Structure formats: C-alpha cells, structure tokens
Amino acid sequence: MLEREHTMRKVIILALIFSTMALASSCVYRSNIAQGNLIEQEDLDQVEVGMTRNQVRFLLGTPMIDDPFHKSRWDYVYFLKIGREAATFKRWVSVEFENDLVSEIRKDQELAPDL
Q1: For the range 27-34, what are the long-range contacts, defined as Cβ-Cβ under 8 Å and sequence gap of 24 or more?
Q2: What is the pTM of this model?
Q3: Does 84 have pLDDT greater than 90?
Q4: Which domain holds residue 63?
C-alpha cells in the first residue's frame, strides 16, 4: 500500500512537471518588429511635384524598395508589429519621377491586411 502511494505521488509530480513545461513553452516572447522607412508626416508634406531625386532622398531617405522594373518609382513602406498582434501602424508612399523630377506622390496606399 505504501509503495502504491509512493508511485502515485511520482506520477502526479511528473504530470505536473510536464503540464508546467507545456504551458511555459507556449508563452514565448515575441519582440516588436519595425520594418521599412519611418516617414514623418512633416517631411512627407514637404515633398512636392517638381523636386529632384536628391531633394526627395534628403527629406524621406533612401527608398526601402529598389524595383528594377520601375526605375521611375520609389516606394517607401513601413509597418510596426507589436508582439503577436497585427501590424498597428502601416504606411506605403510611392513617389513617381519623370525626367528625374517628381511627377506624382501617392500617399497612404493600402498594405496587405494580414501584415
């Protein structure tokens, strides 16, 4: 009888240890992820049609995406993802050039919702 109680205690302790390990493994920390160019609104407001590439680069920085198929377009993409949540802040701005001068500015385009 005493041996049976001793065996039962071992089984209960092992079950508690394994269940604690299983719960602890699901609580993995996810760090915040910030990707792309964070563009301040006041800098974006200064970009105007007719500016040169160097002026845009001075205000907004080097574009995140250098697309070889669209040499006349610079894309600035930014998103912030906190933990396991969906992205809390997203921004996509495209600047189109014609003859190395800004011809169009597309602000706040839609990014994928599952980002």
Answers
A1: 30/83, 30/84, 32/80, 32/81, 32/82, 32/83, 33/80, 33/81, 34/78, 34/79, 34/80, 34/81
A2: 0.64
A3: no
A4: 30-106
